[in-house]
Amino acid sequence: MATLREIRRRIASIENISKVTDAMRVVAAARLRRAQENILATRPFAEKFNTILGHLIAQIENPSHPLLESRELKRVCLISVSADRGLCGSFNSNIIRTTTQRAQHYQEQGVEVMVICAGRRTRDYFARRDYNVIAEYVNIFRQLAFETAVEIVEEFEHLYRDKQVDRVEVIYNDFRSAILQVVLVEQLLPLTPEVPTGDELFLDYLYEPGQEAIFQSVLAKHLNMQMWKVLLDSNAAEQAARMVAMENATRNAKELIDDLIIQRNRARQTQITTEISEIVSGAAALEG
């Protein structure tokens, strides 16, 4: 059984840890609020961007563009988006597991797999194993910028244009709420925008200078906006996961402290009882 001094030391140590985890929870909650505002402001624009692109493809006869070209699948590029830091529950492990499963799925079909790592955690995992990591972007979430999304898009877009890869997919955590983040696998290339159906297809849009010119302009910016949305989603999901993880850690620390306090009281009671028994025995021996 642990001594009274050891129990006191453990209580003091866990109290210090609980202060740290509670401070991290507060910081994550503040960052989550800003990240949530950013992604909620970006989503409508990105969704409308995709809608307009789908409408243009539906209206233009035989639209042609290298990024719309579907080819026989021989090489695939997976973009794995994780966090740069840990202490966020299963956030990073879910991304790594899904990326690994996706890579194995293609390898079993004889398809060559290339990996682009966005985030230190995926970089550290895949760089130490037998994976073809062609690019890595670490510490990008310290000061997240739109230029980072553009840089990532340029990295895999030229591979697709040069026919070095036949498909590009991104794997990331989609932010749904503070307690729910879902791992998604989305295809970026070849582009497959959702074509409107029914009455939505015949909305009376007027395009200036023309449908073809607008189509080329929108298509060039579409990937940048989608990649930016992915990074914002992942950032918000990371802060939410860290906030929940630190809240659970703080609560577990307090429960552990309560258990240790009970042990401390029992140890003190045993010590006091032992001392009283020794005093009584000593007094009885002197009288005898």
Topology:
Blueprint: H1 4-59, E1 75-81, H2 91-108, E2 112-118, H3 120-127, E3 132-137, H4 146-161, E4 167-177, E5 180-189, H5 211-287
Parallel strand pairs: 1-2, 1-4, 2-3
Antiparallel strand pairs: 4-5
Tell me what the structure shows.
- This protein is an alpha/beta fold and 288 residues long.
- It has two domains: 4-23 and 247-282, Helix Hairpins, CATH 1.10.287; 25-244, ATP synthase, F1 complex, gamma subunit (Pyruvate Kinase, Chain: A, domain 1, 3-Layer(aba) Sandwich).
- The chain has helices at residues 4-59, 91-108, 120-127, 146-161, 211-287; strands at residues 75-81, 112-118, 132-137, 167-177, 180-189.
- A five-stranded mixed beta sheet has the order 3-2-1-4-5, sandwiched between helices.
Short description:
This protein is of the alpha/beta class and 288 residues long.
The CA-CA distance between the termini, in Å, is 35 Å
Radius of gyration: 29 Å
Biggest pleated-sheet summary: 5 strands, mixed
CATH H-tier superfamily of the largest domain: ATP synthase, F1 complex, gamma subunit
- Total strands: the figure is 5
Strand order of the largest sheet: 3-2-1-4-5
Overall geometry: elongated
Label the CATH architecture of the largest domain: 3-Layer(aba) Sandwich
Strand % is 5-15%
Can you give the mean pLDDT?
89
Name the poorly predicted regions: none
Number of domains: 2
Instruction: Quote the CATH topology of the largest domain.
Output: Pyruvate Kinase, Chain: A, domain 1
* Number of continuous helical runs: 5
The helix-and-strand class reads alpha/beta
What is the CATH first-level class name of the largest domain? Alpha Beta
Helix content: 55-70%
What is the element string, with H for helices and E for strands?
HEHEHEHEEH
